[in-house]
């Protein structure tokens, strides 16, 4: 997932105010940005047991050059929910049994020879699209300049 950050003159002015402490300001801006995206992803994640929403987290590298929002190992199915499965997933093929003659799970009439899969619910991409990246980055730097950033 690529995020494009466009700077405005006000952001450049903030960078000048940072002086020699540019790394701290960049880390603060990026921390604010990934925390906002994480919050929106948690709200937008499909909920059945809330394990998926609870597994969403974010981090920023020590040098402040890269940040990420991710689903931790507590919900290993997060990738399948986000990108979809079967004909809706990356392989674009129906789900068929590998070792048996039919698929089985409690509920449907059996035998089930194949299933279409589930549609993607890209909650991480949606959260990134809904976020005003430059505004949140700028807010993080401004907060850092005021001395109230949680880094």
Question: Can you characterise this structure?
Answer:
With 151 residues, this protein is mainly α. The chain folds into 2 domains: 1-84 and 120-151, no CATH class; 87-119, no CATH class. The chain is 43% helix and 7% strand. The chain contains 6 helices and 2 strands. The protein has a two-stranded antiparallel sheet. α1 (9-18) packs parallel to α6 and α2 (22-44) crosses α6. It is elongated.
Kindly summarize this structure in a few lines.
The protein is mainly α and 151 residues long. It folds into 2 domains: 116 residues, no CATH class; 33 residues, no CATH class. The chain contains 6 helices and 2 strands; from the N terminus they run H-H-H-E-E-H-H-H.
Mean pLDDT: 84
Percent of residues in beta strands?
A: 5-15%
Helical segment tally?
6
Q: Structurally, how many domains make up the residues? A: 2
Major sheet summary line = 2 strands, antiparallel
Distance between the termini: 24 Å
Please provide the count of β strands. Answer: 2
Low-confidence segments, ≥5 residues, pLDDT <50?
Answer: 1-7
Counting copies of identical and different chains, the oligomeric state is: single chain
Helix content: 40-55%
Helices and strands: which structural class? mainly alpha
Q: Going across the biggest sheet, name each strand in turn.
A: 1-2
Rough outline = elongated
List the helices and strands in order: HHHEEHHH
Rg, rounded, reads 21 Å
